[in-house]
Amino acid sequence: MADKENSLGGLNLDRRCFLVGLGGVGAAAAIGSFLTGCALKKAGKKLLIGSIVPTLDSQFWQRYKAFSETIAAVMGFELVIINANNSSDAMNKGIEELIERGVDGLIFVPYFGTGPKGIAAADAAGIPVMCVDTLPGDAIKPGGEFENYIGVVGPDDETAWYEMADALSKT
Hints:
Layout: E1 7-8, E2 11-12, H1 15-23, H2 27-35, E3 48-53, H3 59-75, E4 78-83, H4 88-101, E5 105-108, H5 115-124, E6 129-132, E7 149-153, H6 157-169
Parallel strand pairs: 3-4, 3-5, 5-6, 6-7
Antiparallel strand pairs: 1-2
Helix pairs in contact: 1-2, 4-5
């Protein structure tokens, strides 16, 4: 029988699967990523996911926060979101606090050069970690030196610029 606390439509999803979904900024990307190819989970505990955003002064990050909270509620996960207030020190402190709290997964935006350090800290604690919006550093790859680093969900700027230029050239 499906565990209703950690399910969506009767499917139980593991924490890595949920991180991939929650890491998506748009509903289509998030829902598609955690329902496609994810392992089913049959654990009875409510998972705790920690997320750090660079600022809540931006409408983009406000919407990201609202979407994340909605998905967490639907999935039955507990979500803690920390606002870094555009500060690298606050971002690093938030990562440390969430790791000390024992989150089951960590999602953060690797601004201010926090990517390598944040990923290394989560990996050392055995916590799956995912970045959103931007790459954490050129040398950091999923499946590389950090076993618990899942990857990044972010824009494809090259494709976006090509499509915008193509559309404008047809006007």
